[in-house]
Amino acid sequence: MISEKLQKALNEQIGAELWSANLYLSMALYMEKEGYSGFAHWLKKQWQEELEHATDMATYLIKREGTPLVDKVDVVPTGWGSVLEVFEHVYKHECHVSALINSLVDMASADKDKPTQNFLWSYVAEQVEEEATALGLVEKIKRAGESGLLFIDAQLAQR
Ligand code: OFO
Asked: In the chain, which end has fewer C-beta atoms inside a 10 angstrom radius, N or C?
């Protein structure tokens, strides 16, 4: 059975994943309104992934005889100035989530809870990918002019 302390921390992370989902949905809707349907599509995939992370964590807690919670989620930002601003925010947010996951691993390790450490390693690895992907997009967007942005937009529609 998982400790109360880890259970509480994982429940907080479920809340953080749901907040991330809302953030990406908000960004997707903003991009859609700005006429970038490919960027919007990419962000909607992120939204779905974050919902999966939250539900996978909840399922894990149930397997460890814990009780997952769906708590109140704070309001997310709604306006950005440019495509670059949106994706710089994505990158910054992913770095923040990586720090949250890393501290969960430390907590599971201090608890000598091997199954939870093992469960969290896939998130650690995924964060490395997510940070790299977001940073790659930021770099591409920085080099793109308006026609370059439309090209990236068309590419991201294929995700
Ligand atoms: Fe939940 O995956 Fe990155 O944030």
From this structure: N
Q: What is the pLDDT of residue 97?
A: 98
The neighbour count for residue 44, using CB atoms within 10 Å, is: 18
Minimum-distance ligand 1 atom for the alpha carbon of 20? 4
17 CA closest ligand 1 atom index: 1
- Which residues have C-beta within 8 Å of that of residue 17, sequence separation ≥ 6? 50, 51, 53, 54, 57
pLDDT means over runs of 10, the chain (159 residues): 97 98 98 98 98 98 97 96 98 98 98 98 97 98 95 95
Distance 112 CA to ligand 1 centre (A): 24
> Which CATH homologous superfamily contains domain 4-156?
Ferritin, core subunit, four-helix bundle (1.20.1260.10)
The two tokens of residue 30 are 């903003």
Distance 150 CA to ligand 1 centre (A): 26
Instruction: Quote the ligand 1 centre to 94 CA distance (angstroms).
Output: 6
